[in-house]
Design a protein that fits this description.
Elements (H helix, E strand, L loop, with lengths): L3 E3 L2 H4 L8 H6 L3 H4 L6 H4 L20 H10 L10 E2 L2 E2 L3 H4 L9 H4 L15 E2 L4 E3 L1 E5 L5 H9 L5 E4 L1 H6 L1 H9 L3 E4 L12 H19 L5 E2 L8 H9 L3 E2 L4 E2 L12 H16 L7 E5 L5 H17 L2 E3 L1 H4 L11 E2 L3 H8 L8 E2 L36 H9 L3 E3 L1
Parallel strand pairs: 5-12, 5-13, 6-7, 7-8, 9-10, 11-12
Antiparallel strand pairs: 1-16, 2-3, 4-12, 14-15
Helix pairs in contact: 11-12, 13-14
The structure holds zinc ion.
Zinc ion (ZN) binds next to strand 6.
């Protein structure tokens, strides 16, 4: 099930007032947080970006930098056929696939060790024992202030896997993530199955998400997570050419099952409890964990908040994934440095060194002005669990889109 928004962005950005980052971050009412606002640094460049909420068709006209980058490696892309069209799997993709898994297709076998020479393995756990690589998918969410406030109050950083479409719709929320010192990674433009795209579409889904994150935060990510975990060696090759490390997971809260109507909060809480119990059983005494959870809606964020103290109590350390790997330069730009693991855990226990430092603190690249309205067409599709993806469309956004005459196809 998917959401397709076919609409004129210009229509969406009409009529709302501007807002500063400080004003946005100070809001506590989720409805107010999600009210549309104008953000000129994004609206001014939207014409050169793909439409939001829909699969990227390819490199945008006039994008000479993107075209040159793609041309620089396209002849070397492994010859693996797309497994569907426009990010939607062909119905027989799995059943027809070679059972020997020649392409290291994660959705088929959870293969994370590429079979093609020269490709880096996927990351699915962290090397530090009794440590949680803490992260969230599908953001930025428009009403994430309570969740981010809790993290901030605890000097807790996390790895945020942002959807390009959501960064367009919620730029100030994306900016807050950077300013709070979270590690931002790419979660594609339209949140579809990456192996079901053409080579150029895969490139575009990653490239334009990287670019819009740079527009908003000033920084270009060097990590990504495929929606549904769906990657094979063709997808990995293209991502690696863009300097993106694939980060997946080994443990899953299945929190997205609740907004998708496939589970109850009690069942998700049991997933958290069972995961936390593994710490006491010694499961992570030698290698730490990565747990899949979502910044998908108010429920998943509240559940993350409800379980934060339990995770901190159970694990020796809760850190961003990059920190667990001593990745002190998380972005392409080198003027921002993250703490290494030792610096982070010493800072987290009372000091102040556990925060990013550098000359280039993330800041808004333009002051809000005049009209326009950042819409909130947050059609963040839910996560994995095999081949199907849940869908969550915020009611106010859906209503607004309907009022604007947009086509909303579920
Ligand atoms: Zn996702």
């Amino acid at each position: 099930m998917r959401t397709t928004l076919s609409l004129s962005l210009a229509a969406l950005f009409l009529g709302a007032s501007a807002r500063t980052a400080e004003e946005q971050n100070a809001l506590s009412d989720p409805t107010a947080e999600c009210a549309w606002y104008d953000y000129p640094p994004v609206t001014n460049v939207l014409a050169s970006y793909p439409p939001i909420g829909t699969p990227v068709k390819g490199i945008m006209p006039g994008d000479s930098a993107g075209q040159a980058k793609f041309d620089s490696f396209k002849a070397n892309i492994p010859n693996i056929a797309p497994r569907g069209v426009d990010g939607a799997f062909a119905t027989d993709a799995l059943s027809k696939y070679d059972k020997t898994d020649p392409d290291c297709w994660w959705s088929f076998s959870t293969c994370a060790q590429p079979k093609l020479a020269g490709l880096k393995p996927d990351i699915f756990d962290v090397p530090e024992p009794r440590t949680l690589g803490y992260g969230f998918d599908d953001g930025p969410n428009c009403s994430h202030n309570a969740f981010y406030d809790l993290l901030q109050q605890n000097k807790q950083k996390a790895t945020m896997f942002f959807i390009g479409t959501n960064v367009v719709a919620e730029p100030l929320q994306a900016l807050r993530a950077a300013q709070d010192g979270h590690e931002i990674c790419v979660h594609t433009w339209s949140h579809r199955a990456m192996t079901a795209f053409t080579n150029e579409q895969i490139f575009g889904e990653l490239w334009y998400t990287m670019q819009i994150i740079k527009v908003v935060t000033g920084y270009t990510p060097t990590c990504w997570r495929p929606p549904q975990g769906d990657a094979d060696d063709r997808v990995r090759f293209i991502a690696q050419q863009l300097g993106l490390q694939n980060i997946i997971w080994k443990h899953d809260t299945f929190d997205w099952h609740v907004p998708a109507g496939q589970s109850t909060p009690e069942e998700v809480q049991k997933n958290y409890d069972d995961f936390i119990a593994l710490v006491g059983k010694g499961e992570f005494d030698h290698v730490g964990a990565i747990l899949l959870a979502h910044e998908l809606d108010n429920y998943t964020m509240q559940t993350a908040m409800d379980n934060y103290a339990k995770l901190v109590k159970a694990f020796d350390h809760v850190v961003p994934v990059g920190v667990a790997f001593n990745k002190t330069q998380p972005y392409v730009e080198t003027n921002l440095t993250f703490p290494n693991f030792q610096q982070y855990i010493s800072g987290q226990s009372g000091g102040s060194s556990g925060t990013p430092s550098g000359s280039g603190k993330p800041s808004g690249s333009g002051s809000p002005s005049k009209s326009g309205s950042a819409a909130n067409p947050s059609n963040t599709t839910g996560q994995q669990g095999g081949i199907s993806a849940g869908v969550s469309v915020k009611a106010p956004a859906a209503m607004a889109l309907a009022l604007l005459g947009a086509a909303l196809v579920l």
